[in-house]
Amino acid sequence: MDAASETLTIGAFGKAAGVNVETIRFYQHKGLLLTPERSYGRIRRYGSADVARVKFVKAAQRLGFSLDEVGQLLKLEDGTHCGEAAELAALRLADVRSKLADLARMETVLSTLVCQCQAQQGRVSCPLIDALHEN
Description:
Blueprint: H1 10-17, H2 21-30, H3 48-62, H4 67-75, H5 82-119, H6 127-134
Helix pairs in contact: 1-3
Protein backbone atom coordinates (compact mmCIF):
# COMPACT_ATOMS: atom_id res chain seq x y z
CA MET A 1 0.00 0.00 0.00
CA ASP A 2 1.45 3.38 -0.87
CA ALA A 3 1.77 6.22 1.61
CA ALA A 4 -1.00 8.21 -0.06
CA SER A 5 -3.58 5.54 0.73
CA GLU A 6 -2.57 5.40 4.40
CA THR A 7 -4.68 8.28 5.60
CA LEU A 8 -6.71 6.99 8.52
CA THR A 9 -5.99 7.94 12.10
CA ILE A 10 -6.49 5.17 14.62
CA GLY A 11 -9.96 6.51 15.50
CA ALA A 12 -11.06 6.66 11.86
CA PHE A 13 -9.50 3.25 11.28
CA GLY A 14 -11.48 1.77 14.16
CA LYS A 15 -14.69 3.29 12.86
CA ALA A 16 -14.03 1.99 9.31
CA ALA A 17 -13.22 -1.50 10.63
CA GLY A 18 -16.14 -1.55 13.09
CA VAL A 19 -13.96 -1.94 16.20
CA ASN A 20 -12.77 0.34 18.97
CA VAL A 21 -9.25 1.71 19.39
CA GLU A 22 -8.49 -0.72 22.23
CA THR A 23 -9.24 -3.65 19.90
CA ILE A 24 -6.79 -2.30 17.34
CA ARG A 25 -4.08 -1.96 19.97
CA PHE A 26 -4.85 -5.44 21.27
CA TYR A 27 -4.55 -6.92 17.77
CA GLN A 28 -1.24 -5.11 17.36
CA HIS A 29 -0.03 -6.52 20.68
CA LYS A 30 -1.07 -10.04 19.59
CA GLY A 31 0.77 -9.65 16.27
CA LEU A 32 -2.40 -9.80 14.18
CA LEU A 33 -1.94 -6.27 12.92
CA LEU A 34 1.24 -4.32 12.27
CA THR A 35 1.85 -1.08 14.11
CA PRO A 36 2.76 1.58 11.55
CA GLU A 37 5.60 4.00 12.14
CA ARG A 38 4.67 7.44 13.33
CA SER A 39 4.56 9.89 10.47
CA TYR A 40 5.23 13.57 10.48
CA GLY A 41 3.22 15.01 13.34
CA ARG A 42 3.72 11.82 15.39
CA ILE A 43 0.43 10.31 14.20
CA ARG A 44 0.20 6.71 13.03
CA ARG A 45 -1.69 6.31 9.77
CA TYR A 46 -3.64 3.27 8.62
CA GLY A 47 -5.06 2.30 5.25
CA SER A 48 -7.58 0.08 3.51
CA ALA A 49 -5.39 -3.03 3.82
CA ASP A 50 -5.42 -2.60 7.61
CA VAL A 51 -9.22 -2.25 7.59
CA ALA A 52 -9.51 -5.42 5.48
CA ARG A 53 -7.22 -7.31 7.87
CA VAL A 54 -9.27 -6.35 10.93
CA LYS A 55 -12.47 -7.33 9.13
CA PHE A 56 -10.85 -10.70 8.31
CA VAL A 57 -10.00 -11.19 12.00
CA LYS A 58 -13.55 -10.33 13.08
CA ALA A 59 -15.08 -12.64 10.43
CA ALA A 60 -12.87 -15.52 11.59
CA GLN A 61 -13.81 -14.86 15.22
CA ARG A 62 -17.51 -14.98 14.32
CA LEU A 63 -16.86 -18.49 12.97
CA GLY A 64 -15.40 -19.46 16.33
CA PHE A 65 -11.69 -19.27 15.54
CA SER A 66 -9.50 -18.25 18.47
CA LEU A 67 -7.07 -15.38 17.99
CA ASP A 68 -4.19 -17.88 17.80
CA GLU A 69 -6.03 -19.72 15.03
CA VAL A 70 -6.74 -16.43 13.28
CA GLY A 71 -3.02 -15.73 13.39
CA GLN A 72 -2.38 -19.08 11.71
CA LEU A 73 -4.99 -18.31 9.05
CA LEU A 74 -3.40 -14.93 8.39
CA LYS A 75 -0.10 -16.68 7.72
CA LEU A 76 -1.89 -18.89 5.17
CA GLU A 77 -3.84 -16.13 3.44
CA ASP A 78 -1.76 -16.01 0.26
CA GLY A 79 -4.09 -18.67 -1.16
CA THR A 80 -1.47 -21.38 -1.68
CA HIS A 81 -2.14 -23.13 1.63
CA CYS A 82 -5.77 -24.10 1.21
CA GLY A 83 -5.19 -27.60 2.59
CA GLU A 84 -3.72 -26.25 5.81
CA ALA A 85 -6.55 -23.73 6.15
CA ALA A 86 -9.04 -26.54 5.59
CA GLU A 87 -7.42 -28.55 8.40
CA LEU A 88 -7.88 -25.64 10.80
CA ALA A 89 -11.47 -25.23 9.66
CA ALA A 90 -12.11 -28.97 10.06
CA LEU A 91 -10.94 -28.78 13.68
CA ARG A 92 -13.23 -25.79 14.27
CA LEU A 93 -16.13 -27.67 12.61
CA ALA A 94 -15.58 -30.69 14.86
CA ASP A 95 -15.67 -28.38 17.89
CA VAL A 96 -18.89 -26.74 16.68
CA ARG A 97 -20.50 -30.14 16.12
CA SER A 98 -19.49 -31.24 19.60
CA LYS A 99 -21.02 -28.11 21.10
CA LEU A 100 -24.20 -28.65 19.09
CA ALA A 101 -24.45 -32.21 20.42
CA ASP A 102 -24.01 -30.88 23.96
CA LEU A 103 -26.70 -28.26 23.37
CA ALA A 104 -29.10 -30.87 21.96
CA ARG A 105 -28.53 -33.05 25.03
CA MET A 106 -29.13 -30.09 27.34
CA GLU A 107 -32.30 -29.19 25.44
CA THR A 108 -33.65 -32.72 25.81
CA VAL A 109 -32.95 -32.87 29.55
CA LEU A 110 -34.34 -29.40 30.23
CA SER A 111 -37.42 -30.02 28.12
CA THR A 112 -38.14 -33.22 30.02
CA LEU A 113 -37.63 -31.52 33.38
CA VAL A 114 -39.86 -28.56 32.45
CA CYS A 115 -42.62 -30.99 31.40
CA GLN A 116 -42.23 -32.90 34.67
CA CYS A 117 -42.45 -29.66 36.65
CA GLN A 118 -45.65 -28.65 34.86
CA ALA A 119 -47.18 -32.11 35.39
CA GLN A 120 -46.39 -32.23 39.11
CA GLN A 121 -48.37 -29.24 40.35
CA GLY A 122 -49.17 -29.35 44.03
CA ARG A 123 -46.28 -31.66 44.78
CA VAL A 124 -43.92 -30.55 47.55
CA SER A 125 -40.74 -31.52 45.68
CA CYS A 126 -39.88 -30.07 42.27
CA PRO A 127 -38.58 -32.60 39.70
CA LEU A 128 -36.16 -30.05 38.27
CA ILE A 129 -34.63 -29.23 41.64
CA ASP A 130 -34.53 -32.93 42.55
CA ALA A 131 -32.73 -33.79 39.30
CA LEU A 132 -30.14 -31.10 39.91
CA HIS A 133 -29.52 -32.42 43.42
CA GLU A 134 -29.05 -35.95 42.05
CA ASN A 135 -26.40 -34.87 39.56
